[in-house]
Structures are given as C-alpha cells and as structure tokens.
Amino acid sequence: MTTFLNQCAFLLQKYGVSYLRGAGTTLLLALVGTLAGCLIGFAVGTLQTIPIDPHRDPLYKRIPLRALRVLLRCYVELFRGTPMMIQAVFIYYGLMQVFNIHLEMWTAGFLIVSINTGAYMAETVRGGIVSIDPGQTEGAMSIGMTHWQTMLHVIMPQALRNIVPQIGNNFIINIKDTSVLSVISITDLFFVHKSVVGAQYTYFESATIVMLIYLTMTLVSSYLLRLWEKKLDGPQNYDLDTTDTLAYTSGMYNAPDPDHKSQNLDMKEGASHV
To answer: Based on CB atoms within 10 Å of each CB, which residue in 59, 116, 197, 235 is the most buried?
Structure first.
C-alpha cells in the first residue's frame, strides 16, 4: 500500500501539470462539443417537426420537406448507430485519404463531438417538442403565429425545461467519451495517461489518478447542472396576490403598504383618498 501511494505521489509530482492540461482539454472538448451539438440538435429536431398537410400544402413544399426528413433521419441513425471512435477515424483519416481534405486535429475533434452529440440531441429535442400539449400549438396558430414563431415563443421555452436533464447527461457522457479522440492524437486526459504509462509502466497508479480526475469533473458538473435545473424551476412557494393591480391605475384603491402591514384594503378607505 505504501509503495502504491508513493508511486501515485511520484506521478503527481512529475506529471501533475500534464494531467491538469489533459483534464482542461477534455473539459474544453466536452463543453464546446455539447454546446455546438445542442444547436445542431435544436435545428434538426425543429425541422423534423415541421407539419406537412397532404391536402393543403402544395407539391413543391411537400417533396422537399419529406426529402429533408429522410436526410435528417439518416444523419441521426448513422451517428447514433456507430461508435465515436470509428467516426473519429473516418472523419480525420478517411477524409484525408479519400477526399484529400486535411482537417486540423482540433477542428476534427470539435467536429466529431459536435455532430455526435447533435444526433442524440435531435431525438431529445423532438421528444421534448412532442411532449408539449398540442393545444399549445393550436392556440398559437389560431392567433396567426407561423410554425417558427410558435416554436420560438411557445413550444421551445416549455420543451427546454424537459430536456435540460438530457443536456447535462450528454455533457457528462462527452467528458468520458472524448477519451476515444486519443486515436487522432488529441492530448486529452486519457492520452496523457497512455503517455505516462508508456514512460513509467505504472498502469494501475496512473489509472487511479485519471479515474479520480474524471470522477471529480463529472461530480462537479452534475452539481452545477442541478443548480441550473433548480433555477429554471423557480421558487417552490409562491405568494398569492389578493389585490387587483389593475384597479390601482383607476384611483379606487391605495397601493399596499411597503411594510406589508395591511394587504386587504377596504374599498371605502381607498375611495376616501381619491
């Protein structure tokens, strides 16, 4: 046990800065990839919910929308159904070999995490939109709102609260899954671990340090995400307003006392001050 702790202390002393840099790279990839993936997911999920009326919509509108749905469905199924490591190899090395497209290593890393997260978020957003009562959409349409106005002002604000837990879940998953990007030589935390192991042959000691760093990042992220959810929920208790604020402008009532000594105002007392 003493030897194990001494080895861990030695690795932290010699490679501590490298571990921290790798953790920073991992967080950066996960954060940027999750944010970009959310934007992709919101766009794809919203496009998938555009209504198509076979009786009212003209043919030139129905055909492109149906083709777009098929294309988006293929994108979602492709990136949900294949491992991120294979996607990284295909995008970074495949584009270089087949199409002679040379992507910078960081550009490829951000792109891979973003489009992978976007595929999962697209289904999450679509499910969040479908979960909203159809009466909300019908009510918005009845006052003349377009589909995009309804999504932006009515549906999305309600759907966002339903999908916030999944956004946080995807972020935590990306913190761990970015380890596969070491296959394209991105120096994330797992890449640092492999380098230390190759230099010192301390597999278990280095793995223990990396595991604790990953665990710390995910626990802190979970705590911050729960705080965000509570802030979106608002206070649990609400004060019931028993006064008619519209009557204040008519001069019939006095405004409530700032010290809240009297909340129930008598009409006669209010009228005497007019």
So the answer is: 116
